[in-house]
Amino acid sequence: MLKLEWSNVDLENGFAKLVRTKTAAEEVRQLPNEAIEVLRLLPRTVGCPFVFPGRDSRSRLKSVRKPWVDIRKKAGLSKLEGLGPFRGVGA
């Protein structure tokens, strides 16, 4: 999902085209209504094709580790016992 580009998102019809997945070169997935609403609210970075932009306007977000730590801190959950560290793809 971090490689998702706006050009591959069709919010009107509720679809996203995922390119170069592990199982196929291209997959079209129907988006749940909740995901469509979240995507509608996301700001778009001028000159950046990615739905989840990185630090500059030409790159994409590479990991959600740092945002996840920030979210936990802001929610007061940084010391939640048993939750452990972030474990995601590539972690």
Written account of the structure:
- With 91 residues, the protein is an alpha+beta fold.
- Strands 1-2-3 form a three-stranded antiparallel β-sheet, with no helix packed on it.
- The radius of gyration is 15 Å and the shape is globular.
- The mean pLDDT is 84.
Question: Helices and strands in order, then pairings?
Answer:
Blueprint: E1 9-10, E2 15-19, E3 26-30, H1 33-41, H2 65-74
Antiparallel strand pairs: 1-2, 2-3
Question: Quick recap of the structure?
Answer:
By secondary structure, the chain is an alpha+beta fold.
Backbone structural class: alpha+beta
Q: Beta fraction of the residues?
A: 5-15%
Strand order of the largest sheet: 1-2-3
Question: How many helices in DSSP terms?
Answer: 2
Provide key terms for this protein.
2 helices, three-stranded antiparallel sheet, single chain, 91 residues
